[in-house]
Structure formats: structure tokens, C-alpha cells
Amino acid sequence: MAKRQGEEGRGRRWTPDEARRVLDDWRASGLSLAAYAQRRGVGYERLGRWKRRLARANAAAGAKAGAARSVIALRPVRLVAPAGIGGEDWGFEIRLADGQAVRVAVEFEAEGLRRLLAVLGA
Length: 122
Description:
By secondary structure, the protein is mainly alpha-helical. It has helices spanning 16-29, 33-40, 44-68, 110-120, and strands spanning 92-95, 101-104. The longest helix has 25 residues, at 44-68.
């Protein structure tokens, strides 16, 4: 007997892969979680539980990977003569491999720069 749309393993436990597939489908749908659950005939609470469970698992995996990646990788840089930005003195410019440039003031917060470079993928 063929499964009807929305019967994502109704009456049995989902595996994490099944839950990921359903949640990916929900995200791609553009619907709210409640609207998706109703449309697909899946329990709203079930979706919410899996969403939280997988988010916790992803956060834990990211933290574990982050601990292993705590070494900063250096990339080639090119120093340019300071010309000032809007009349302000600046210390140096970092040019990323993709051509983006980050100009850093003479006095800067190292942790803030580290977070900025992480966001930019440097």
C-alpha cells in the first residue's frame, strides 16, 4: 500500500536522518512550522521536538569541532601605505583571498577582529 503524502512514518519513531529530511522539506516550503505540520499531517509537537533535538546535536558538534579548530590559520597579506579613512588614521588593511578588504585601526580589539574574520571566512 502506497504512503499518502504527509505520513512521514506516522506511528513509529523517526531516525535522525528522517527527521532532517522532513525539517529540510519544511524549511524549503516557506511555511510556518504549524502550517507545514497541518498540511503534511505531521504532529506539530513532533516537529518541534526534532527541531530542538537536531539543533542541540548540531551545536554540540560545532562546539567540538570548534575546540579542535582553535588554531588561527595565517594567510598571505599585502601591506599598503596608510591613506586614512574619512580623515582617521588606520593601521593596516587585510585583503582576503576573495578580494574583500578589512581596514583595521591602529588600536583595535583583537577578539573583535578575530570574530569579524571568522564571519568573513578568513
